[in-house]
Design goal:
773 residues, Jelly Rolls, four-stranded antiparallel beta sheet, 31 helices, cNMP-bd_dom_sf, Crp/Fnr family transcriptional regulator
Length: 773
Amino acid sequence: MGTVLKENELNQLVRGTVLFQKGEKISFIGMIVKGSIRIQNGAVKRIAKKGTIIAAADVFADEYLGDYITEEDTIFYAFPAFDSGSLEQFLIDNSDYKGIVVHSMEKEVVEYLGERERILNRAGEFYHFLKRHYELAIRDGMDKEEVPRKFFEVVPEVAFELACREPKVSYYQECAKVPLSVHNEFYHDSDVMAFYQASEIAYVIQEIIKSCQTIVKYIEEVFYMYWNANGNNLFDKEVKFAKEMKKNGQFKMEQFIRINDTKDKTFMLNEIIEQMTGKQLPLDRQYLEETLKAVLNTPMASSQEVEEEPVRSAEDQLELLQNSLLQILDFAKIKKEEQQEIITAMNAFVHAKDRLSTQDDVRKLKKQIALYYFKVYKVCLFEWFENANVPLAVKLFLNYGYMDERLLDDEQIVFLCEQVDQSYPNLPCDIYTMPEWLKAIYEGRKDTSRDSFERDYRDALREQRRTGRITDREEREYLKDNRRKVIFEIENMFTSNNKIVNGKLSTYVPVLYKDEIYGDIERLFLSKQQLADTILELEEKDFTIFNREVLYTNPQLKIEKEYVIKHVYPDVILAPVYGTTSSMWQEITGKKRDTPGRFIFPSIVESEVYKLVTKAFGRFHWEYCRCEQGTSWNNIQYKSLTSEYMDYIQYYRKNHDLSEERREKIKVQIQRARNNSREIFLNDYELWIYYESKAAMKLNKVSRAILATYCPFNKDIREFLKTNTAFSEAMMRQIRNFGEKAKEWDMRIKRRENNNLEVPEEFYRTYEYYADH
């Protein structure tokens, strides 16, 4: 039972006082005069602050919807209220409180909606993690019968819709933005309006709380899918499968990483549920830890086909990495005087009190280290090109930005040692580590990237000749000099993108150090396989992303000019840095449109990989369209993704298909993106991929139609969305476009067949692309 309150008086309450308990018969509402009160109901919690009326929505439920506990020393004015009738009488007797009651309840709606979105995102995160792990296990050979298919039929983002309609929720969200003074003036003279509005809002609040409780219950179900005592769970199935793979000699370290991820997610889920509900779920932490270790200790069957290098123990690896910085500098053949300068700077960084500081002295030190880093990297790289035997410290330096063992924990170092020689054959797209990429340029297998001025190596040399910095003869020589090409790539693409994908401009330094690594490095490490799988997963949803129309000619078959569909994966590069974002550096190579783009990702990732890939995809859509359309990229006379989207954001104020509320949201979206058209589009693209693909409406009618036309979903998703009237019109636009194209190509092929002319394979593939999608 809650504390005894004095009615119609100020009550002074110390921190931690329980005013009301969930389920208690309603007795008081009241205003917080000073301090704050925490309201928690086993699913969500919120903090009500000074000037807020609390428990008004509870009156309509006849009981308190949560526990009310003071967050700090608080002064609370208590008004007696026993049912909705007493609240109505309170509003009649206290005209000055009408606006405050309504405004407080509107803010309550907004706060609970924020909490609901947070836990729904959590539910989605744990659902998709579970689904992805089963998909990867099936890919590696796990029996499909192990997958709990019925569970995956319920997608949380789609399943847990509010009973109250979206327009009603949006209405109260907008009302909460209206100043309290306006509320007071508006409701002052009408008891009926204030009470009616309060009763309507109370219904919405109750629905949101019920929805939150349902989602939390679902999260508990997800926990038991991760682990339970009966063995029918993801963790135990992954362990069992890993041991089977070890017996067959087919075990991959990636499987161990996935099991460790499952363990970490299970612990995280347990903590989240305990925070939200106060429940302590049955979790045997010791069992999970010991079972995980047992996977590594299970002997691996020998393979006669592959001779593996002897596996070094953790102690051996750490011993090899003593004085790593000196090993790296010696390998690079840096002069002793310069070595001392670099060692002095690194020692200062190692012993810095706060390595994440943005103070001038630390920033200056990091800038100095960055200059040394790229200079040493350049020299080490060329030495690596010519040497088969490279010290372990140098491998870690080139691949992950490791320079000094004092900057990382032993466990982090050992993990990186285990990963550095991992190979991933038969990936669907080319994924390079940074040293592998630079070696491909050195050997002439790949062209250099553009610099920040959109110039490639040839353009840069031409500019140097034009300004008299090099002669014609030197230009011709340098064009064949692969060493200079590598230096150009390091000084431009590498240095720029290392900083971009790190994403922390104020604290950036290219050296890997533990202070910036939030979480277990095993979970944050981005393997080539994981990245390739994520790219494929998203491409399956956004199937047009790497399909493009390219010019096709074949004089032998009497084909002068046709535009056929060609599938071109980008070159994907892993930068040796810890980072938070991705970079879509260029959409094509050189001038030809059928060449790969360049995507760069950090080797160790703070954010979710799926989100990083989504950002890269969105930016690629935009930049490739700009490249394809040339000067007409924003000319609405030539229909394209960029021209239609630019027309939409330039003239949204006059668009009759948009409500005033939607126009205001677009205005805010433009401001957040700082008027950058690509980033405005990216925001919509992310909503399109994350939510709209699951029928969760986040876009307006106009932007949805544009994305449905130029970034359409695969057939299965479209068929699912067509059943929803809000999506059907947008989906039909793409279906019409592809249907017309398929008909054109069918006629083109039949014409050649009727004239006994050979039909090239490219024609059939293009027809199938339009007909099958």
